[in-house]
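Here we describe the complex-level prediction in full. Unlike the single-chain runs in Section 2.1, the two entities below were treated as one system.
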Amino acid sequence: MTGPAWLIWALIGLPLGSGTALGVGGRRAERLAAPAGVAAAAATLGLAAAAAVWRPAASAPLFAGVDATFAVDGLSAVMVVTVASVAAAVLVFSVGDIRSGEARSRFFGLMLIFVAAMLVAVTASNLAVLLMGWEAMGATSWALIGFWWRNRSRMEAGATAFVTTRAADVGLYLAAGAAVAGGAGSLRLDALAHLPSPWLGLATAGVIAAALGKSAQLPFSFWLSKAMEGPSPVSALLHSATMVAAGGYLLLRLHPLLWASGWGQPVVAWAGAATAVVLGLVAVAQADLKQLLAASTCAQIGFIVLAAGAGGVAAGTAQLVAHAATKSLLFLAAGAWLAALGTKQLDALAGAARRYRLVGAAFTAGALALAGLPPLSLWATKDAVLSSALARQPALYAAGLAGAVISALYSIRAARLVWLPLAPGASAGYDTERAGTRRVEGWMQGPLVVLAAAAVGLGVYALPEVSNVFDNVIAGPGAGRPAGWELGLSAGLALVAAGATWRWVTRLRVPAALGAAGWAWLGLEAAAALLVVRPLLRAASGLARFDDVVVDGAVRGVAGGALAAARLGARLGEVGVDDVVGAVAGGARRLGGLARRPQTGQLHQYYAQAAVALAVLVAIVVAVR
Amino acid sequence: MLSLITFLPAAAGVILAALPARLPAKFFLRAWVAVAAVDLALVVALWVAYNPHGGYAYGENLRWIPDAGVGYHVGVDGLSLPLVAVTCVLFLACGIYSLGETRRPRTYVCLFLGLQTVCVGLFAALDLVLFFVFFDLSIVGMYFVIAGWGHGEAARAAALKFFLYTFVGSLVLLLGFIGLYLAAKPHTFDIVVLTRADPLAGRGAYATVVLAAIAVGLAIKTPTVPFHTWLPPAHSEAPAAGSAILAGVLLKFGTYGFVRIAMPLLPGAWRAYALVFIIVGAVSAVYGALVALAQPNFKRMIAYTSVNHMGFVILGVGAAGVLAGTDAQSRSLAVTGAVTQMVSHGLITGALFLLSGVLWERTGSYQIDDHSGLAHRAPAFAGVTAVAALASLGIPGLSGFIAEFQIFTGSIASQVAATAVAVASIVITAGLFLRALQRMLAGPLRLPATGPDAGGRFADLTAREAVSVVPLLIVSAAIGVAPRWLLDVIEPAARHLVGLVAR
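The structure predicted for the assembly as a whole is:
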């Protein structure tokens, strides 16, 4: 039984319509923006909850043979509620963070449009519609990361994020084409796994590329580092629960395709495991809190990707939800400190938790969850993921476990640094990035408390009763059910790593070798610039010169040649023809002159001429005879 | 009715030309807007009453030069009606935009009114000679617009280049038309009759030569690589309204010629050489995008993105000629996408060129690096330009995506590698537009030292400018969000065309 179609249209249309209205309204909507934005987000959350209960489906004609179809199944139900909840929390926080007069209407408008795009992507049951949400998300993320456009580097960061993810999105266009070519002309997502070869392979490769790009997995991770130039609420929404999570969602949704391809599963699983380990190490090396959180996002989404590759759909979804709550909490806490103290540098933030205790407590709750400490949310969900990895391949499990230990290192390091005693000269490090207000408004505190409760409380997933219900909702295969020893092992390792970190970290200090590679995010961006962007720009300017000199030169050459030929023709042709005419005339004139000479008018000369002529005639006659 | 829509602007132009030139400029300009509005209203009525499954509608077939097989045969179907509509929309937008024109307004208005007749007439023409006449007249009209109202001496050179280059193209096209005429028994230039007769079926070399002539003629107009170099100077020197019409309407003559003439009249040859068109399309797409990336001049950059976008169209129509490994759905998607792209490109590029005209009026420069931080002074200009750029680079919710998605998904079955290369160019267009936007709109405010607006003011969009540009983007969004009202018209015609090519 499916719910009413209008519910889907309302769920998408409400944030889209209100967001567009706010964005178009501009300065006129400035005062209205915050209350309207929060109200729209709250109403969207209500609609999402209703959609999760009633499970609506909707369909409308789109292209020839391709209908725009939407459906809320178990997986989508979890996604819409997660997205709408985080969006509501973040928008409430934004009321305190994005000050009035700071183009609030544009901010709330774009955030709502973004939410609508994400809701399209997670409710679509058809690749064309999914791609529409997917690409709209990318474009909106550009506008949101570059929200403070007066500083051009922020817009450049937005452009990097958008262009990088779009390069990966080419994969989805190809996958859609492969579906049509392979006979799945409806573009329904559930038809992709039944494509014939070679279209199956192309579709799989395209989907994997697009998902890894959107989720900032290796080798695309660098765009997320740049994206930290955007406002904190943007990071809290885009880089925890939505944009980056969309890649993980796509792989979870299309796990039958990965399975059918034969090679998709191991590729995806190892990409996720590698990102969990490598980007976790990058996170350990960061000196900037938001950069640390961004690298950790890549690593944590790595577990979702790993789950998709290992076939643990329910486990991966649980990880996605737990991470969404935890990471948006941490980004918002970092944003609260940034707003109050004007910095996100970890050394300057030393003691920040003591200064703003509620923020500090919420941040710590999130950091402990992120560290994978029992009995908090990510501990439970990560073990479910690792359990499905173990069922697939022990090496995969070992890599994942290493990633889990690393997450304890960077999380506890951040928590320890913000709880250090407040140094006497601490304020010297403040206000380096923006002017701090030295207070955390109630609008900001409320969402922190709610999200902290979620980050802690979702640990109930470890209870079999709860996880059974959840797995039934997702109704996917391979619900990871970690054995007792697995839970114990990961909990023990995380506790040891966390304890050691707490004990040893007393100031910001990173091993030099790790630091250099980690700060630059392994040089991935430099590599992309060196290998892709710069050659492309060189090719572009080379081709532009080629276009001017050679292609257009050929045209100019032809035109010039025609002119030259015309001039030559003018000289040769005119001379030749006119000379012939002239010569003929001159000859005639000369002949005329000659013919006139005998006409003397004197009779004796005519007789003489006649006599000569007669003599000649006689001579001829005689000679011929 | 169709003839009324076609000749109403020209008739109005003749009347205006007879009036004394000393009448106020506003009178002529407002008269143009009024005529364009009436014409658009008539087209809307035509659209509402049109039955997409009925083939050609509103046909009129009169004797003209019967001895030569030439008739005045007009009519519209799902391929031409959307282009007639977008023509009328663009001319109205340009009329509103030009309300501030002060240089020789009477001549200016009469030229544009004449051009509108020519453009509508070309899309309505169902006779090759009629098509050719309008094709050539458009070159003459646009020559005078560029030379007379462009930017100085360089404009005259660009206009001459445009005229000669496209005129050569039209002559080659005429040779192809004569080839078709001679092959048909009895001899005729009637497109409908020729489509039914398929006179060149099975005539290998002859058909190849005719297709080559028609294809080169149309490729120059479209333009595709390597026949595109008349386009950038013509655009960068033309006045804003001229650029908008040139890019929005005149370029479509080429691509429309492919779907109206080359494909249905030469199906066998089209199938045989489909790969050539696919490759030319893919190369144009990538080449246009890359060269656009390197342009320091905003208007030239947009001009080169036209080469990119028209490349997608050629890719789509080429893909429809490959029967092996494809089905009717994919080919029909490709052709529908190609026609949608013509409409979409007309709207979006028209808007972008009008916006670059706004830039020129303020600062007298198109150089990207001459401008910075324009969003400080002109938030509405910045916002509208950003939306137009996003539309052009194919963001969902706007018409470009609807067109390109169909082209790509429909073309892959025909040629994977070429299509993949063409798809990759959307990343380059994204990069180049965002780079231009962030350089011109963001950062600290900086304007050219000289120019009309040297005082550091950069006024935001005026009502006149906003009313001319914003509706184009609204129509683009209407296609992007709910495309059925357009696709319902295009799809049956595209399916029919795919069937004709496959016979």
